[in-house]
Amino acid sequence: MLLAMHFDGDANFALKAELGTNFEQLSAKVSEFDFYYPEKKTHIKLVKQAECFFAPYDINIKNFKVNVAPKGEVFIGGRVTQNMLDVAGWIKNVDLDYLPKDFKGIVDGQFKVVGATTQPTGKLEVRLKDFKTLASPKVSLVAKGKIVAVNNEHKLNLDVKIIDKEKYQIEDAYAYLQLPLKYKPMLSLSQIRPIKGKIVYKGSLKTIWGYVPLDGRKLTGTLDLFADVSGSLSRPEIVLQANTQKARFEDLLLGVLLTDLDFNLNLKKGHGEIDLFAKDGRKGEFSLSGNFDVPFLYHGKYKPTFEHFKEKARNLWYEKQLQRSMLIVDIQTIFNNFNPFYRNDFSATLSGEVMAKENIESLKVKGEINVDKAEVHLENIHTSSIPQLNIVEDSTKRIKRKPVGNHGNLDIKINISHDFGVYAPILQTLWKGNLQVTGKIQEPSIKGTLSAWKGKMNIVGSELNLNKGEITFDGSLPIAPHLNLILEHKSAGVQSFIILKGIAFKPELEMTSNPYLPSDEVLAHILFSRSVSELSDFEKIRLAGVLTSLVGFDINSGLTNVTKNFLGVDVLEINSQEGANGEEDINIEIGKYIKNNFYIGIEQGVGQQNTSGVLKYEVNENFSVGTKAGTEETEVGFKWKFDY
Question: Considering only CA atoms, which of 449, 417, 258, 256 is closest in space to residue 352?
């Protein structure tokens, strides 16, 4: 019977073989085996026809050799029966970079097992040169294996060592494992006979942390780790001890720093104890301590330490956890004036306690956190995750939200003191309040209210004081608090208000007054205590600059048309470019056409003293001549525009 298979997609695979069977044995002559993975330029191809024979207790493979392009070879062949062994294989110069994994390195190795099934002999050796993954350093490893006779039994000894340890600041690092072999019906690993082994690592945390797939995070210091392995493959018993001293963790993405990090971990018979202590580089401290159980490694009659269960109920509960959990924890976390944030846009000092209990798949987290002091500086936030203010669209209509029920694993109370400050170049506010975090860990819900108790807005020398401020979290998902912030200004018998309301990360901006005035008049009264009609051209430029600053640090927010209308001008251009000092320079120009081709305008930089008058005569659509006379310099020029 001829078997032909072909698959195309991200990877291409082709197989051709001639099969024969009598329902007790299967034979195959493989004439084609071709695997191609274009993304990694990997091509694995059979060198010549291979023959295979499979029967219950008899496996025979002849000449299965493949080339791994662009370089490397893999070969396996031989026979394994119920009574006899004669099998060998090798790998030559296989580059891991060409396999569909995020690994790099060169693999060489060989193995051979011969002799009677009850008296086997054999060796294994694999060398991995310059192995690395992601941001890890390159290390070279050698793994050796040998079948040895121990008390009338045969066992496979495996040793793994790092070559040139000193190069990677490693004092000692090795792994040893002895695995028992069984003979019936064929030679294989025993699942129930005793195993033993050791794993030792003493040296740089930076080296081993390089293999953790977390970009932008650094962990330095030293690690002492010792593990003793016993039991059996079906029920291993691991005694593990690990500790670090004075380590240092940096999260470059979040701007978080932990110093003086001491970590201790002990594991025995499936029960572990953990202690972690760290400082924030200032005066604050953080600690984590508790117990955990690994059901897979559980041995004997161990009584869990969870205090909220009675003895009998606790044991029944634990037995259920054994059947469905990978990890059970009882951990306490304590914050003491802890501020690990080293950022120019956000800072928070935390105190409190959080408990995490039960199985890791449905962890129950409960606690209370006090925000002793916090600051948010909006002007230093330069990511797209901070949306701009919007005075045109109703953002509340664009978010589909759903209410959250009472079920969940979280129960954390957050108390925010009087020292929670939110600052921007023109706005300063202080907040207080209480929040409750509930729901599921992967989908938390927040309910509560923050109230502004002090605040002011300063717009070009004009000050508005806080009238009212609330941020309300209603517990719905996604989390989108509702903002209602009112700032008040009084002058010349007019009570003016600037109101921010709506979804907090995309609120609407309104300007109103008592008695009622249009928006342009409200802003004119706030800035100059008089009507727009009484403003000079220079004051109108300043008015346009203020409107620019009110849209959340974005000068391209679609306000120019609105502004042009109420200022009564034909042109309002807001241009920005990087200045000599690396900061953004903003220039505003307003102007009006007299007749159809004569333009007069005024230009001024925001926050600058230089003001220029602009005159321009457009000869035709492609050619114009103009002059710009300023307080610091005067320019005359021609402009030719050619569209092609």
Answer: 417
